[in-house]
Specification:
Number of helices: 11
Oligomer: single chain
Structural class: mainly alpha
Distance between the termini: 26 Å
Largest sheet: 3 strands, antiparallel
Number of strands: 3
Helix content: 55-70%
Radius of gyration: 18 Å
Strand order of the largest sheet: 1-3-2
Strand content: under 5%
């Protein structure tokens, strides 16, 4: 984790002059979602508090908020750790994604849609794949789905899915072959974008539903091999 503390200290500017636990939790949630803190990582109060320039009490409150979001766990006499998901967690994450993301597409209304964010995420993924950076491809994929949810124009939905996508990153960390997981979805993201650009909500929802089913199957397969069978 130490190699990330320098970049984490750069986030101090995001706190502004009125540092709050909510803002600290926003920063840490984003860092978890971007893959800086893998599952099982112990979060040091001294190191993170020093990097962000916040008090121990503020940081502990931020940890408490993220624990309620199921991103962190507190272990008695050991400290606070980034959560390691179970197979059941992964299945529930995808169940939530299916309910929310498909409903967003289904309820979009009449085209044209504001697709610049989706298009940018597709481009981000293809650039990362060209550099053989599959962790960043996974990040771009999360960005794609975050932008998809944002099409609903609902702050509450955005907030709900922000934590879900951060949990999804925890699931991605267990995958031993990120290229195999993420590469097929580069083309599938583009297909969904094209369907929406053509104003075909029904086709976009159909593509998305199958996409999520296939992704769940692939991730659960990895979990059953690497987590469920662990001693």
């Amino acid at each position: 984790m130490d190699e990330h503390l320098t970049s984490l200290s750069e986030d101090r500017a995001l706190l502004g002059r009125t540092s709050t636990a909510e803002r600290v939790s926003d920063i840490l949630r984003s860092r978890i979602a971007e893959g800086f803190f893998p599952p099982g990582t112990r979060l040091s109060e001294d190191s993170i508090g020093g990097a962000l320039g916040v008090s121990r009490n503020t940081l502990r409150e931020a940890f408490r908020l993220l624990t309620h979001e199921r991103l962190l766990v507190h272990e008695l006499n050991r400290g606070v750790f980034v959560r390691v998901l179970t197979v059941e967690d992964v299945e529930d994450i995808y169940r939530t994604r299916g309910l929310v993301e498909c409903a967003v597409v289904r309820g979009l209304g009449e085209p044209p849609y504001a697709l610049d964010g989706l298009a940018a995420a597709v481009g981000e993924g293809h650039r990362a794949s060209a550099e053989d950076d599959w962790k960043s491809v996974g990040t771009a994929n999360i960005h794609f789905h975050r932008e998809l949810v944002a099409l609903a124009g609902s702050a509450r939905t955005d907030e709900l899915m922000r934590s879900v996508f951060a949990e999804l990153r925890l699931a991605f960390h267990v995958v031993d072959d990120p290229k195999r997981l993420h590469e097929p979805y580069l083309a599938r993201n583009r297909e969904i974008l094209r369907a929406l650009d053509a104003g075909d909500r029904a086709e976009a929802e159909k593509l998305l539903r199958v996409y999520l089913e296939d992704s769940l199957e692939r991730v659960v397969e990895v979990y059953r091999r690497r987590v469920a069978s662990a001693p």
